[in-house]
Specification:
Layout: H1 4-15, H2 20-27, H3 31-40, H4 58-67, H5 72-81, H6 88-97, E1 118-130, E2 133-144, E3 150-155, H7 160-174, E4 180-183, E5 190-192, E6 199-200, H8 202-211, E7 214-217, H9 227-240, E8 245-246, H10 249-264, H11 275-282, E9 298-303, E10 309-312, E11 315-318, E12 327-332, E13 336-341, E14 344-350, E15 359-360, H12 379-387, H13 392-400, H14 406-418, H15 421-434, H16 439-454, H17 466-471
Helix pairs in contact: 2-3, 4-5, 15-16
Length: about 475
């Protein structure tokens, strides 16, 4: 069939007075085709009204498509059982032309972003060789919509705390942020809803306000809306992670940052420039960083245990031994653990990236050799010896035997308040002489000495007088 441009040329040459033979020879077509166009007298290509083989079976095809659960192979088999001679290819072509079981594909869209308008953030699970082991990692990426500048970091787990650390590092890497950050409805940011109805977590809203941007989520299933960040994850897996090994997580992220510098400086055919060259224009439109970017940290409240450690995510970090039993404020940042006693920093450790039930000890936090034998004099002990110096030798004996706790000193103070001094002093002297440090036994010794004075035997008790009997 001749196309419309050829039919137009035939009619034009006829108007100029050329015959069918000359026109056919000039255009390289048959005279019959030229005469057909002469007869039609129109340049429009006529539609072919050709009967389709599957048209008589249209109702059967629609019914079988539903009963066979949209399996066209089964539909073709059932039609063959009914005697239809339709081929499988003809069946699928008929279903495509008449939109049976499938809607026509909508045209693909294209998103254009001006400089500084949007940045896209997402994560993807991968595997990497870290410290000789194949471990699961969360590749976290941020891409600027206009210049395609990319920033990549990797973490063992991706939480809200990790998200704030990453976005802070990305903002400092780019030197600013875009007006909005497109996310993939991640629970780390989303409190409720999805897409345009997404409501972010107040904590993340406050974080975004610090830098001057807002979180926006695309509709569920519309991954093309964040394609600029999505398309890079396959490149990360097959380029950055392929064949590379890392000594630890710091080495992994250091190599990731160096890889970003290299990729951002590489020209791209689709951009007709490198992302770094386009970034020179976008940088002028980014929202500037605040004068002070505070360090992201997670706050824990802990009590220093009896061994002198605080527990954070299955890892024990040492604290000064004199603070045992004291409540502490522990700040967990990207790479440090800081222990505060009120407003004062008393200990600092390098943060363990993975929870591995380990102990991290600073030797300065342990007491020097022999310091435990020279215990700090408690206020209770000082007050006891000021009231009665006769307890000095016995308290020293308690300390040499590993005793003399605050509770034992308080027990001696109670004895001083409740029992006569003479009986108490004689019992203390005898206990010191024989090295007896059991306070319960010491109290029994005192009670035996005062039993006759406070509890006289029945034979020595005086009978009650008449007035006492009348009172009863």
């Amino acid at each position: 069939m001749l196309d419309q441009s050829t039919r137009t040329a035939i009619l034009r040459l006829r108007e100029e007075g050329h015959g069918a033979r000359a026109i056919a020879r000039t255009l390289g077509i048959s005279r019959g085709a030229v005469k057909t166009v002469f007869k039609a007298g129109s340049e429009a290509v006529p539609h072919l009204d050709r009967a389709e083989l599957a048209e008589p079976l249209r109702d059967d095809i629609i019914a079988l498509y539903a009963s066979c659960k949209a399996n066209l192979v089964r539909v073709h088999q059932e039609l063959a059982i009914k005697g239809a001679t339709l081929s499988y290819q003809a069946l699928t072509a008929f279903c495509r032309r008449h939109a049976i079981g499938r809607a026509p594909k909508p045209p693909a869209g294209r998103y254009e972003f001006e400089p500084g308008v949007e940045m896209q953030h997402d994560t993807s699970p991968h595997f990497a060789i870290v410290a000789g082991r194949r471990v699961h990692i969360e590749s976290t990426s941020l891409v600027l919509g206009y210049s395609r500048m990319i920033f990549l970091q990797c973490y063992p787990h991706f939480t809200r705390f990790t998200c704030k650390i990453f976005l802070t590092d990305a903002a400092q890497y780019f030197g600013g942020v875009c007006a909005r950050c497109m996310i993939d409805n991640t629970h780390v940011v989303v409190r409720s809803g999805s897409g345009k109805n997404m409501v972010a977590v107040p904590e993340m809203i406050a974080f975004a306000d610090r830098f001057g941007f807002e979180f926006v989520a695309h509709e569920i299933g519309d991954a093309n809306r964040s394609a600029k960040v999505e398309r890079n994850f396959d490149f990360i897996d097959h380029n950055f992670l392929a064949g590379r090994t890392f000594t630890d997580w710091d080495d992994l992220n250091a190599q990731a940052r160096a890889w970003c510098d290299k990729v951002n400086a590489t020209p791209r055919r689709a951009l007709h420039a490198s992302p770094r060259e386009l970034f020179a224009t976008e940088l002028l439109r980014l929202k500037a960083l605040p004068l002070h970017v505070p360090e992201v940290y997670r706050l824990h409240h802990r009590i220093v245990d009896v061994e002198g450690y605080v527990h954070v995510l299955r890892v024990r970090y040492s604290a000064p031994w004199r603070l045992i039993g004291r409540p502490m404020e522990v700040r967990e940042s990207r790479d440090r653990i800081e222990i505060f006693d009120g407003p004062r920093l008393v200990a600092e450790h390098r943060r363990a990236t993975e929870a591995c039930d380990q102990r991290i000890t600073d030797p300065a936090h342990r007491p020097p050799r022999g310091a435990l034998a020279q215990r700090v004099e408690a206020p209770e002990k000082r007050r006891l010896l000021e009231r009665d110096p006769a307890f000095t030798d016995y308290v020293t004996l308690l300390h040499t035997r590993g005793r003399g706790s605050v509770r034992e000193i308080r027990t001696l103070t109670r004895m001083l308040d409740e029992y006569p001094a003479d009986a108490l002093h004689r019992a203390i002297a005898e206990a010191t002489r024989f090295g007896m440090t059991d306070l319960a036994r010491l109290e029994r010794m005192i009670l035996r000495r005062i039993a006759g004075d406070f509890f006289p035997p029945p034979t020595l008790r005086t009978p009650p007088t008449a007035d006492e009997e009348s009172d009863d």
